[in-house]
User: Fold this.
Amino acid sequence: MPYALILHTLLIVVLAIMVLGLTRQIGILHERLAPMGAMVNDHGPEVGEMAPVLTVKSIVDAPVQIGGPGRGGQTTLLLFVSPTCPVCKKLLPIAKSFAWGENLNVILVGDGDVDEQRHMIQSEGLQSMAYVVGPEVGMAFQVGKLPYAILIDRSGVIRAKGLVNSREHLESLVVADETGYASVQAYLKARGEKVS
Assistant:
């Protein structure tokens, strides 16, 4: 019986040491993994280029200009969404709060059934934002997946773009604009090149 007790005690001590080792390794892994910003695709106008200038009608038939100098000197956030996209619906209240905090002019861009778009505007309380329904904007920027965001500065230059699904991804677009790097990935790559 004492051998069994000693064996159990020894086993518990070994397991405790293993758990502490795993905890340490998880902490190291967490430090090494950098936050990932919006995932940038390589299609459409590039970061640093002038955005295509389009004048389109909003869902309420008001003219909306995309590209060119920003409205009231504001930076514009184009956010491509769909009523059938659950991630888009989760992101919309975050985008509203984020845009207000960052003083951004937000233009929501959708495609498809207008009645579904109107229902989403109503249910998500998006009446204060310009909402464009039509494929021409998505084709001009070559957007293939949703939700997708493009940040256009006051002078009409694309400063950042990418797939977004959280506040952190939206913030990474603004950080990309502020730092001059096209994406968090570009920043990390440049930082790695300077270190080596």
Summary: The longest strand covers residues 105-110. Helices lie at 2-32, 86-102, 114-124, 135-141, 167-179, 184-195. The CA atoms of residues 3 and 9 lie 10 Å apart. The longest helix spans residues 2-32.
